[in-house]
Amino acid sequence: MLGLRANGPALTTLPVLANVGTSGGSITHVALNGGWTSVFYLVNTGSASAQFTLSFFDENGVALPVPLVLPQSVTNITTAALTQTLAAGAMLVVETQAQDAQALVIGSAQLTATGNISGFEIFRWTTFGQEASVPLETRTPNSFVLVFDDKNGLTTGVALANQIAAAANVTVRIYDDAGTPLQTTSINLASGGHTSFMLPDNYAVTANKRGMVEFVVPPGAKISAVGLRAKNDGTLTTIPVLTK
Length: 244
Hints:
Elements: E1 3-7, E2 10-14, E3 25-32, E4 36-44, E5 50-58, E6 66-70, E7 75-79, E8 81-86, E9 91-96, E10 105-113, E11 117-125, E12 130-135, E13 143-149, E14 154-162, E15 168-176, E16 181-189, E17 194-198, H1 199-202, E18 210-216, E19 223-231, E20 236-239, E21 242-243
């Protein structure tokens, strides 16, 4: 099953929810201001009301106050941790109050809940009218695997977020489409920290190639990952990351 969303010139897929637990999860990439805005959709799939907290962090893992709009109740609030109660079967929309003239703010978000609450994010590149979805990451694999295709005007990117209160040193292994190793390096994520980049900007070996990148989760760590794919005409989408 797959969801689709059309908004003017933007077309993106929507994560569909299934087997929603009570452990919450991570929304790996949040962007607002400087031509970007984010919208969060939160749903209580359980049979009883439950409370959630959506917490925002900057790239260094510091609590990030974000100006928010709750359009269903016409509420404006600036907070680093939004706590609300959702009735069984209810859905809440949370929008960032983005200011295009202000500097871009990038980070991540974490969801905790007392019941079966899940959701996802849509972030919008207002400059080109494009949108992309970010699922709530609940998996805890040994590695995340991102397939990249940087040919014919395409560029692949990635966002990583650290979900725990300890720094994480993530090993990065890059392979071409024949499985030949190209590079091994590492990324250090601060406690609660975040990073995002286009692969050729950080790893020149991926330019004009296809292949995969493995992000090895260190023992005891908990990170999340999402892929990004952009074209030089402004087309943007997210790419699911595989696990191993």
